[in-house]
Design goal:
With about 270 residues, the protein is an alpha/beta fold. It has eleven helices and ten strands.
Length: about 270
């Protein structure tokens, strides 16, 4: 089943065209890796999927990006609702300067109907999310435990929930950021080089988590690590100079690429 359908997508940063006539489908509850050399449009494509490029001055986009059959490029798109559904994990984990507990319940409560988000001034959202969770402790306790269990952190952190999240290891911070998306009930998880700052052992554990999350989430991961793409993904898309050169099952792309440019990149002849 198609979760995301991209049709004739083009994107410009000012006069520079970063994405060129991209057409790609993302299946529900599978892992798709996007590979390619630096500057080829991988991260730009990822940011299109939750409209983060809107924050960059001079961006212009054409085409369609359908998430559950809704064109998210429509100017009327509810960006709060979109970014709840399509969450993102960055290269460096970015926990809030709060406790582990409050990091997790903040996102869930901000997006919950229990907080009238449309009625709260932007500069009050942070305090509102925390206050709401303080008033509904039993519910929030359940959210925190469920989210930490989903990222295999509960046993490690259940006795440290009131301690600052900034004191966690890099791997734990990255898992915590994923737990925030789970708490917010995201359906699509975008990962932009999620292991680039981690050592090999921590990378193995995050990859194990990614494979586990596939049971319930659609995952799109940008990576420069060819071995990682081959290990974790079901499908792989190869990008070069803003164009999608090849897309297919990961086993096929890595063992029998259809395009010479794909073969050259995977075998290290360029990139």
């Amino acid at each position: 089943m198609k979760k995301i359908l991209i049709e004739n997508l083009n994107l410009w940063y000012g006069n520079f065209q970063a994405l060129k006539n991209v057409n790609i489908d993302f299946e529900e509850k599978v892992i798709t890796a996007i590979i390619g050399p630096s500057g080829c449009g991988k991260s730009t494509l990822l940011r299109v999927l939750n409209r983060m490029n809107d924050l960059v001055e001079g961006v212009r986009t054409t085409g369609q990006v359908l998430v559950d059959d809704e064109n998210i490029l429509d100017p009327k798109t509810d960006l709060v609702r979109l970014r709840k559904k399509v969450g993102m994990v960055f290269q460096r984990p970015n926990p809030f300067p709060l406790s582990i507990y409050k990091n997790i319940i903040f996102a869930e409560k901000i997006h919950s109907r229990k907080v009238g988000i449309s009625l709260i001034p932007k500069d009050s959202l942070f305090k509102a999310g925390i206050a709401q969770c303080d008033s509904d402790k039993n519910y929030c306790d359940q959210v925190v435990e469920r989210s930490l269990r989903a990222v295999l952190l509960w046993d490690e952190l259940k006795d440290k929930l009131r301690k600052p999240a900034l004191g966690l290891s890099l791997e734990q911070k990255q898992r915590l950021c994923i737990a925030r998306l789970i708490a917010a009930k995201s359906e699509v998880v975008l990962m932009d080089e999620p292991c680039s700052t981690l050592d090999p052992q921590a990378t193995d554990r995050i990859e194990e988590l990614i494979r586990e999350l596939k049971k319930n989430y659609t995952i799109i991961i940008v990576t420069h690590n060819m071995q990682q793409a081959a290990r974790v993904s079901d499908y792989t898309s190869f990008f070069l100079l803003g164009e999608q050169i090849e897309f297919g099952e990961t086993s096929q792309v890595f063992t029998k690429p259809q395009n010479k440019k794909t073969e050259d990149y995977i075998t290290g002849r360029f990139g």
